[in-house]
Amino acid sequence: MPKLFKNILITGGAGFIGSNLADKLLQENYNVVVVDNLSAGKKENLDKKVKFYKMDIGDKKISKVFAKERPDIVFHLAAQINVRDSVKDPIADAKANILGSLNILESCKNYNVKKIIFSSSGGTIYGSASIIPTPESSPEIPESPYGIAKLSVEKYLNYYHKGFGLEFIALRFANVYGPRQNPKGEAGVVAIFTDKMLAKKEVVINGSGKQTRDYVFVDDVVSACILSMKSDKIGIFNVGTGMETDVNFIFAEIKRLTNSDCMEAHGQENIGELQRSCLDFAKIKNSFIWTPKYDFKIGLEKTVIWFKNKK
After folding, report:
1. Residue 293 pLDDT > 80, yes or no?
2. Is 81 within 8 Å of 39 (Cβ atoms)?
3. pTM over 0.85
4. Strands 212-213 vs 245-246: parallel, antiparallel or unpaired
5. Could you tell me which residues come within 8 angstroms of residue 247 by beta carbon, excluding any fewer than 6 positions away?
6. Mean pLDDT, to the nearest integer, of 128-149?
């Protein structure tokens, strides 16, 4: 892939990860265009230098954005991201996450995009993995329509690469957390707990709270995105920390950081929820010299400070 490129388009760029990525790209003097329907993102997350289009990725008119802006690189982060909503309405999830993605891929093909970096999901694609931390070579057995959709798009990426030469990287993110995460519209126990404790509201832990996830700080995710953009490599890469953290620990840490007097309360376990999820990041470490820089406690502290300042 030619190294000389300037124009970047981010779908879902007004959201949590996308807006943090947009900021970093602006710092590196790229021209940044964002497409977002603002269902979860917020326009105020975006720097004034970003060119913004309020549009759904399923809208056929998105081809006009590609025709006008001529992006060299596309970061495809827009999605229906709630796993539980995908279970309730798999058809709506497929329309957003599969058909919407195909609409983007068609425009990438038709307007000579050099590379697409796709926001995939390491937390759902592997299902109940037998190997933890889980490498990319593990069987892909998603247990939700959301995970199935993410895996489907990865297969389409391979098709567009083989058939039309569109270069791609699919980044299978662990559980991303950090500043700007929306505690109302997005999944994310860190954001939800922090928001509720600062508002002196009750926090309910689903099930025992012993279920674990791999929590990766948003700045580390942005770093992986930018390294992927600059790399000649093609393929699928986990983006995680290789460390498991349970919900009870997160509750206790956020309670300490917010000086909350919130009492621990446990509710019903979510049906079908994975008990463990953690990603092996050896492949991206070896390929891009990427490692997570943020220890969970440090990232959590930065996140809580951001939420406090937002109040």
Report:
1. yes
2. no
3. yes
4. antiparallel
5. 189, 205, 206, 209, 210, 211
6. 96
